[in-house]
Amino acid sequence: LDYIANEGRLGKTIGKDLKEGNITIPLICLLQRAKEGERSEIEAAAKSKQIGDHQIQEITCLMKNYGSISYTFSKARNFAARAKQELANFDDCIYRDALLGLADYIVERDI
Length: 111
Prior knowledge:
Layout: H1 7-10, H2 16-19, H3 25-33, H4 36-47, H5 53-66, H6 68-87, H7 94-108
């Protein structure tokens, strides 16, 4: 979400994770799929203390082109489905319902 969300709705700056040096699943996936020259530029940007908005946009574009955004959403949906399967083992109650709703919200929210 950090790379594709609406900044106002997300409540944080787009690319903030990368700017703070946080290595997330979309970035890991991109590094695995990118060409060597691109990978070098991505790694340099990730290590930089002063990564700019233009670099964030370029990396986001590469993430979309290499499918790392869709891969990440797929992983999130799979984790949510597995969590919901595990929750089925518990008796029906408001807490289980809240967790089921949270699993859906996390992967389906529109930001």
